[in-house]
TrEMBL record:
SUPFAM superfamilies linked to this entry: alpha/beta-Hydrolases
Family as reported in the entry's similarity comment: Belongs to the 'GDXG' lipolytic enzyme family.
UniProt xrefs under PROSITE patterns: CARBOXYLESTERASE_B_1 (PS00122), LIPASE_GDXG_SER (PS01174)
Hydrolase is among the record's keywords: yes
Name under which the protein is recorded: BD-FAE-like domain-containing protein
UniProt entry tagged with the keyword Hydrolase: yes
Record-level Gene Ontology MF annotations: hydrolase activity
Active-site residues from the entry: 97
One Pfam family recorded for the sequence: BD-FAE
Segments forming domain BD-FAE-like: 3-140
This protein's UniProt keywords: Hydrolase
Length: 190
């Protein structure tokens, strides 16, 4: 797994906020190699640090491998981002489509050991999350069940509910893992 760290050429004093972006692509394709215009603005105008991450893809790797990979990236950022001038205590997750799903799930499952095998004691909490057209309703999604989580019949509905951000919010709230969230949904015009 790889990640890219983007910083401003002129670095202001002090530690700067960090955005971790998780790419979309239906959990089966996509790349960390695209710097979005909003990321460029954050870097050049607001002096944020942006980290674009990769994660292993389905069908070779069934979900929740994707979520575990995001947690590994959060661990790395928390441990190393200060070397780039970033604040390990001010991390915001963002993602589009499948990445929006992973960003929401990573934020809401902070510090849950089943997604942090080998680094159970690392704090994976974040300050906020932004979901751009995120896949937030996967609890009835047969594509996700069969082509991403690689489920066979019968479909494990409880698993889908536990990994659908729209149904997981109440649980995250009760566990104290619900962070400020911005959900942006684009609308097609014809």
């Amino acid at each position: 797994m790889m990640l890219d760290v983007y910083t401003a050429v002129e670095k202001p004093p002090g530690l700067r906020p960090v955005l971790i972006h998780i790419h979309g692509g239906a959990w089966r394709m996509g790349s960390k190699n695209h710097l979005y215009p909003y990321e460029n603005d954050l870097i050049t105008e607001e002096k944020w640090i942006v980290v674009n991450i990769a994660y292993r893809l389905a069908p070779i790797n069934a979900y929740p491998t994707h979520l575990k990979d995001v947690k590994r990236a959060i661990r790395w950022v928390k441990q190393c981002i200060n070397n780039f001038g970033g604040d390990p205590n001010f991390i915001v997750l963002a993602g589009d489509s499948a990445g929006g799903h992973l960003a929401m799930m990573a934020a809401m499952t902070a510090n849950q050991s089943q997604y942090q095998e080998g680094f159970e004691d690392v704090d994976t909490s974040v300050r906020g999350v932004v979901s751009f057209n995120g896949a937030l309703r996967i609890h009835h999604d047969m594509f996700f069940a069969k082509k991403v989580a690689m489920m066979k019949e019968p479909i494990n509905r409880a698993f889908l509910l536990d990994h659908s951000p729209v149904t997981y919010c109440e649980k995250a709230y009760q566990q104290g893992n619900l962070v400020p969230s911005l959900i942006m949904i684009g609308q097609r015009t014809t």
